[in-house]
Amino acid sequence: MQLDIFEHSRDVVLRNAAMDALRERDTGACAQAVATLAAEYSTDPLLPALGLLCEKLRSPTPNPISREAAIAILQETRDTIAAAAHNVFGRAAQEWLSPLWAELAAAIAKYPFDSGNESLHSAPLLLHAGRWADAAGRIESIDSWRRQPAPLAWMIEARCRLGGFDAIWPLLAELAWMAPRRAQALTPRLELPALDRLVRGFDAEFEGEGSPDDFSWLPAWALIADGRLAEGLRLAQDSAHTLPESCARVVLGLLALEHQGRHVELVENRRRLRDAHPSLFERYMQDR
Fold it and tell me: What is the distance between the alpha carbons of residues 277 and 266, in angstroms, rounded to a whole number?
């Protein structure tokens, strides 16, 4: 009986041997394990993915690299290779993919940022690789990175991993004003409980137009919901001077005036908020 179990387990043994070789990035052992698995169990469900990952290890990214080749490798890694890695390693796929992203990032390190092809830059590749500080350094080398949605979103992700909510709150406000849909798509990926609670409250309470652009009002609403966020938001730079940004700054002023006893200015700024967004003004007055 034990022999039967052993025989029926040989496919598992061979599959594990291939996976172990992949983890060790041992191309020779991996090729041998995949070849043996293919010879004895040609219909094994993981065989195609194992073979693809093994072949990828045997084809390192050239450095330097042409733009066309970089685009092809980026697409292959993002789509085919990433899918195969998830099939083989499950939740540990990102760890296995990390050196591939870092390798491609090094190959295109001198590529300038191109807003027409945002993904072909070393910064987002380093984010994929989990190299947060290196990514932040590359982003800082982009001219006016804080005025462009893609580099700003990358920096938010990098600083989030390094410093948490307080490190990204002013930047997230800037992105919400500049590119609200991008900011809304980014927030779940940051996996910050404090931010998730804030967004849930905003989604439940805020009376907007029902479009993704409503997210641009998050900073103003958040200040009203939690005045402790004011200190961080004061670090946000002027953005596109949109109405949501102007209202957020009016609320910032109101929170300061409330502690200064300047009644005339307080009344005037409350009027400005009421005229700009009546329902936001009503929410502000609930606690006054």
Answer: 17
Q: Is the previous residue joined to 64 through a cis bond, with omega within 30 degrees of 0?
A: yes
C-alpha 244, offset from chain centre: 24
Of the candidates 196, 123, 200, the one whose C-alpha atom is nearest the C-alpha of residue 154 is 123
Q: What angle do CA 188, 229, 186 make, to 5 degrees?
A: 15
Q: How far apart are CA 81 and CA 96, in angstroms?
A: 11
Phi, psi of 193 (to 5 degrees): -55, -40
Q: For the chain, what are the domain ranges?
A: 160-288
pLDDT in tens, 211-257: 889 999 999 999 999 999 999 999 999 987 899 999 999 999 999 99
The answer to whether the Cα torsion of 150, 154, 159, 161 is positive or negative is positive
How far apart, in whole angstroms, are the C-alpha atoms of residue 87 and residue 169?
36
For 159-195, the pLDDT digits (tens) are 999 999 999 999 999 999 999 999 999 999 999 999 9
Q: Are 202 and 194 in contact (CB under 8 A)?
A: no
